[in-house]
Amino acid sequence: MPIMGSRFMFLAGQFFNSMCTILFGMLGYIETKDGGTVFVIFCFLVRVSSALGVAAFATASFTIISREFSKSIGRAFGVLETFTGLGLMLGPAIGGALYDAGGFKLPFFVLGGFMLFTLPINCCILPTQSDEIIDTKPDSLSKLMLSAETIFICMAIMVAALVWSALDPTLEPHLRVFDLDPTMVGLIFLLMAAVYAMCSPVCGIIGDKMKDVRILLILGDLLCIVGLLFVGPSPLIGFSIEFNTLWMNLVSLAILGIGNSLIVTPSFDVLNRKALERGLEDNTATYGIVAGVWSSSYALGEFIGPIFAGWMRDTKGFEWCMTYIAFVCGASAVSLISLMLFDCKNKKHSLHNNDIHQQKRKHHTSISNERTPLLKTKNEILNKTCEQV
Predict the structure, then answer these.
(1) Is 141 exposed, middle or buried, given 0-12, 13-18 or 19+ CB atoms closer than 10 A?
(2) How far apart are CA 66 and CA 137, in angstroms?
(3) How many Å apart are CA 286 and CA 72, to the nearest integer?
(4) CA-based nearest residue to 291, from 4, 7, 64
(5) Is the pLDDT score of 277 beyond 50?
(6) DSSP codes, 173-241
(7) What are phi and psi of 281, to 5 degrees?
(8) Please, where are the H alpha helices in the chain?
(9) pLDDT digits (tens, 9 = 90+) for 3-48
(10) What is the model's pLDDT at position 374?
(11) Taking a C-beta distance cutoff of 8 angstroms, is the pair 322, 231 a contact?
């Protein structure tokens, strides 16, 4: 990104992703006489290529947001995540309607075409910065990652994505006992995204006013633990395996939406502050590194979530699947709490050492200022005698 510039990467990533989306819709023309092997291979190829475009413009967008709103990153990131939540809400509904109207191809043609339509608009709106093409120190990434705090923050980001993505393959089978129609199931899926979209700006505003934003991440982990234990519900809190009520699922999903917003929204600002504390310069290159680390952590959680949750549901059941993920959230919370306690201890020790050092300096200063002796020296007495003679 420091070589090409965040603006060019954003526009190039959007164009590449839009073309891959349209191309994915055209895969419906591939014949499946061989059992669908060719179709599956091309699906993987196109989706992997599309992921490159998404990674480009997502990372660039975080970099642009950080640069343009450097004094209020949390608030700006909260607004950005609000629109992410709106996309998660509207995407399934609009995609389903387009699929009913035109089959497999139409949703991808419309989405890819819309991204191409907005490309010239973004080209005119996005600001041009003079510091986009700058040199990046080769050890910047390692300097950021060789820190326990950075690892724990990335773990919290990964856990938030894991919680969200783990519900995709497991929640719908869990809700089948209520005999809901597809519309109601879709609305239940939208609940978590709606709560997330509403809470993200609030979390961003609160995060900008706090000295230590890690408190929000810990609170988010704790809320996710509560939501995961009750969405099952977990046998560890006294419920039987057969117990399952709709209202408890709805409340738990709302709690998970709040918990996710508390983790995701301020996490980028926490990671950016850590980069500056580690000695990285406050420029576009650093913003790009932070954006890349954040995006990688979130994408890793999205990758692990469905695989782990699907396997756990098949082997242990939905209740224990959510329980084990709650344990992962607990591990993230414990690591952040331990880190905060360690920092507080080091800060107190540093303040104590500074006080001792200041006291020693005052003591040495008082001794050095005492230059006039109480008794006259022998030479002074002889000199005075000679003057009198």
Answers:
(1) middle
(2) 19
(3) 17
(4) 64
(5) yes
(6) HHHGGG---HHHHHHHHHHHHHHHHHHHHHHHHHHHH-S-THHHHHHHHHHHHHHHHHHTT-GGGT--T
(7) -75, 150
(8) 6-26, 37-68, 73-102, 105-125, 140-145, 148-166, 171-175, 182-209, 214-231, 246-277, 284-315, 318-369, 378-388
(9) 777 888 889 999 999 999 999 988 888 877 766 788 888 888 998 8
(10) 46
(11) yes
- 361 vs 102, higher pLDDT: 102
Q: Which residue has the tokens 């907005």?
A: 118
Q: Which residue has the tokens 């995407």?
A: 91
Q: What is the pLDDT of residues 184-215, one digit of tens each?
A: 887 888 888 889 989 998 988 888 888 888 89
pTM of structure: 0.80
pLDDT of residue 275: 87
Q: Which residue has the tokens 């996005």?
A: 126
The amino acid present at 307, given as its one-letter code, is I
Angle at 243 between CA 242 and CA 246, to 5 degrees: 125
Using DSSP, state whether 26 is helix, strand or coil. helix
Q: How is residue 243 written in tokens?
A: 């117990």
Half-sphere exposure of 350 (CA within 13 A, CB side): 6
pLDDT for 352 equals 53
Cβ 154 vs Cβ 301: under 8 Å: no
**What's the CA gap between 98 and 109, in Å, rounded?**
10
Report helix, strand or coil for 312: helix
The mean per-residue pLDDT over the stretch 70-94 comes to: 83
CA 294 to chain centre: 5
Q: Residue 27, Cβ neighbours under 10 Å: how many?
A: 17
**The tokens of 190 are what?**
């939208």
Residue 389, pLDDT score: 46
Among 8-22, 81-95, 231-245, 280-294, the range of highest mean pLDDT = 8-22
* Contact status, residue 69 vs residue 269, Cβ threshold 8 Å: no
User: Does residue 375 sit in helix, strand or coil?
Assistant: coil
